[in-house]
Input
Amino acid sequence: PDTSKFIVHKVEPAQTLYSLARKYNTTEQIILDNNPEAKSGLKVGMELKIPIKIGSTQLPPDTLVVKRDTVFQTEMKDVYNVAMMMPLQLWNVSNINPDEIVANPPKSEFPQKPKAAVEFYEGALLAIDSIRKTGVKINVWVYDVDDLDSGKMGKVLGQSEFETMDLIIGPFSPGPFAEIVEFANANKIAIVSPVSASNRVLFKNPMAVKTLPSTITQMEQLAAHISKERKEDNIIMISSGLPKEQKTGNAFRDEMNQLRVAEGKDSIRFTTGFSGVEALLKKDKMNVIVIPSIAQAFVSDLLRNLHTLAEKYQITVYGMPSWMEFENLDPEYMQTLNMHFASPYYVDYDLPSTKRFIIRYRSAFGGDPTTYSFAGFDVTLFFLQQLVRGGTGFVSTITGVQGEGIQQSFSFVKSDAESGYENIGLRIIHISDYELVPFGVENPVKDKR
Output
């Protein structure tokens, strides 16, 4: 197609006509008029022509029209240079008193930011070691970068070796990341935001990749899961009514309604608070209840009430991953309500690969891996593999790559034509026999011997 009149969009998982119309500031009908094949439904990989109307509001004025054959130049190397930028806060080391930390009871704690950075780095070191064992040569530079030191970034960028980097992992926080991503864009260096959920790090930054899905993306992907796996069930969303949670709830509700309508199903049911919930339940169907709230008191009270209703109705609850950190949720409620979560992080400790990693980690560092340790390993290994396989321009093809780490799943979409890439990979987990297991798996009977 004539790329002066059209943008060519490649359909990605979970995208709908509604979401594309919203993305390109157009209408579903205009998309269908220019893509008759889409009338029978969108398929992953389908190429759609999105028309550009100069002088109209159909596309934002700063939209970048990218031709189909536009790719980043890539170079395969014998040796790759990688920069890791983390808030180690080495300037504060003299203020850390180990005796106070290990005292019983502890008199102080190890600072949280550098603790997370060290744990991430330990996991990353094991990933780098795995890549090196395949014969690939990797040079690694580690930079102590934190949002508390605004002048540090200029010094880092002034280092002579920095222009030779082929991959940058970090910084952790959006502030320092924003300072360096402009350099990465100008020098065509892939830069990875490894632990921040903020989408603003991707805006107008085509070399940026974010590995932690935003809350909105998590809710949209949860809608895609429920639409696929719960087609015949009665879907209900219960909101807390709190203003700070409306955006999250609306993201799920809007996406779910669009998917249901596309499949010829009724829109989902909705209520605020517990009152009126029973009137929405059906006795002849599974009632799937989605609760996009992180208010602990509200969630605890709601689950108690739903547990009572479970005596008369079939109920499955989908909650937020942060619930797993709540201290007062009754395990009996979670078991009875068949609790499900869509989480960007989940470790299956029964897998042989997980057990091998833990043994390796203990041997190297004398302790057990944490969430940050797993993230350091998964993120570093995945992107080093992409660098080795695709060369320095691998970021242009990352939307066609999927990966499974120990803790994370990787599947990337481009946020818009001139911005970066977001990971939409989630792991659906649920309670079975009082333990968390992957979706579709029931907790195996343990050998009691």
Observations:
- Residues 53-71, 445-449 have pLDDT under 50 and may be disordered.
- The longest strand covers residues 79-86.
